[in-house]
Design a protein that fits this description.
18 helices, alpha/beta, single chain, 4-stranded antiparallel β-sheet, 504 residues, TIM Barrel
């Protein structure tokens, strides 16, 4: 696990889906290994990614069918071939994928065929895969505490034509024990296939993570505060959420109007029943955090303020304006975790309107918070995102996945705003303002400096990953093969060395 603020370091934010590959989406194959080499060779010690769960329609990593399962689109066909599960003809691409964006529907259709071929080969030639079968059996046993419900949920989603679980037959929706056992027997083959795909995902992931760690690169994962309503987690743990007698949310999560949206953000996720969580000593939350700390070297809790209090919106509301703040029990949860893991490698995503109580919760447990340079140049010299206001226990970003790229952000500023930025960035005479801001982040006292790959490459708004409050054209950007020019990487390597952030 990471030492966080015990050593100055740096990283790049690049989601797995944005890696280059021949198969329409980034995956756990050779390009991912090459990217880790690139990070390590240029002094970086952190690779930050977004959540890895299977996506709902809309393809947001923050709206997943499971808090534990992996998105099988990240499974590398080349690795499957190397393991003998498919051959060259099986993974030859006969459709044309877009070059710089992900077409999720095309990718999903094509990769589903490849995964089915690997399953057929695996089951039809058991003697040829005897050791892999042993691994598979061990995986199913080790992960049965979440895998059994998820695999049944996935089969039900298919059986009921994609309907959300609250629309399933009542005995399935309400998890009648006898009915579920009968379904497990009747659908055993399909359920095992779902488990097999998860086995492939985790086998490839942990081999990639091990390689990263050997190269001195830590994986920085992301844990969304909420889970999706239509998910295996809510279906199998309905008492942990504020649902009515029909299993429908009474209140949903989001945030009030802010910098990103005048209507606020209406996420639609069910909010937690914190009283019931407390009655069970927060077992569900603790298991989830331990799982993520096994998956990653350090973890960001997205929307950290929701552990202190959360914006609860009536489920029938059309916008997030008419919600109310309600108390959570994050202090009690973190108290338990801190006793079990004194050096808890967790980062608080504390952006937006943060109250003194949220700051006190973060600081009591000594969790690093986030600063974003794109937020720094409004207001006055007390703006907490200006580097002279940082502490060591901060992570500084030029921008996050929810921001425009630096180039796009700069082009949208007024002339007066541009003069404010230039007036602050007097530490360097670099012509590019994007380069000045990256160097400003690296020169700060913050323990960790993170730059999105788009800002390493100096890309414009077309490379933006997500625009909060919108649905179309998000989460699609992909990086070119080669990961940019030598000049870009030389600049970053020099900054890592100059500001004592190098992994060497």
């Amino acid at each position: 696990m990471s030492d966080l603020n015990k050593k100055r370091n740096s990283g790049i934010l690049l989601h797995v889906s944005s890696l280059p590959s021949a198969y329409g989406i980034g995956d756990f194959g050779s390009e991912a290994y090459g990217y880790i080499d690139k990070l390590s060779d240029n002094g970086f010690s952190v690779w930050q990614i977004l959540p890895l769960g299977p996506n709902e329609p809309g393809f947001s990593p923050y709206q997943s069918y499971s808090a534990y399962a992996g998105d099988v689109l990240f499974i590398s066909p080349d690795e499957l071939q190397r393991w003998g599960l498919v051959d060259t003809d099986d993974i030859s691409v006969k459709i044309k994928f877009p070059k710089n964006i992900v077409d999720y529907k095309k990718v999903s259709q094509w990769k589903s065929e490849v995964l089915l071929k690997s399953w057929n080969n695996f089951t039809q030639k058991p003697d040829a895969f005897s050791s892999l079968w042993d691994e598979f059996e061990s995986f199913m046993h080790e992960h049965e505490w979440w895998l059994n419900d998820y695999s049944l949920y996935a089969v039900c989603k298919e059986k009921y034509k994609g309907e959300s679980w609250e629309k399933w037959p009542s005995e399935v929706k309400n998890r009648d024990v006898g009915v579920l056992e009968q379904m497990r027997d009747e659908e055993e083959t399909l359920i095992r296939y779902e488990k097999f795909k998860q086995f492939l995902f985790f086998r490839q992931w942990f081999r990639l993570k091990e390689y990263a760690n050997q190269k001195g690169v830590e994986i920085f994962g992301d844990l969304p505060l909420y889970v999706s309503y239509d998910s295996a987690d809510v279906w199998s743990n309905q008492s942990l959420f504020l649902l009515n007698e029909n299993g429908e949310p009474e209140l949903v999560g989001g945030v009030p109007p802010d910098y990103f949206s005048e209507d606020g953000q209406l996420w639609g996720n069910p909010v937690y029943n914190w009283e019931h969580l407390a009655d069970n000593d927060y077992h569900w939350w603790i298991a989830r955090i331990y799982f993520n700390l096994h998956m990653f070297d350090l973890v960001r809790i997205d929307h950290f303020r929701g552990l202190e209090s959360f914006w609860a919106i009536p489920a029938t509301a059309e916008t997030a304006k008419n919600g109310s703040w309600q108390k959570a029990k994050g202090y009690d949860l973190l108290q338990i975790l801190k006793k079990q893991i004194p050096d808890l490698p967790v980062v608080a995503e504390d952006l937006g309107e943060i109250t003194p109580k949220v700051e006190a919760l973060r600081d009591h447990f000594k969790l690093p918070g986030m600063k974003v340079l794109q937020f720094a140049f409004s207001g006055d010299s007390q703006n907490i995102h200006l580097p002279h206001n940082y502490t060591v226990n901060n992570l500084v970003y030029t921008g996050t996945h929810d921001n425009d790229t630096l180039v796009g952000w700069w082009s949208a500023l007024s002339n007066a705003e541009k003069q404010t930025v230039k007036g602050y960035c007097t530490h360097t005479n670099r012509k590019s303002v994007a380069a000045r801001l990256v160097e400003l982040a690296w020169s700060s006292v913050a323990c960790m400096a993170i730059v999105p790959m788009q800002d390493v490459l100096r890309l414009d708004t077309n490379a933006r990953m997500n625009t909060p409050g919108t649905i179309e054209d998000n989460w699609q950007w992909r990086c070119d093969a080669g990961f940019g020019s030598k000049k870009c990487w030389r600049f970053m390597k020099n900054l890592n060395e100059k500001y004592n952030r190098s992994n060497e």
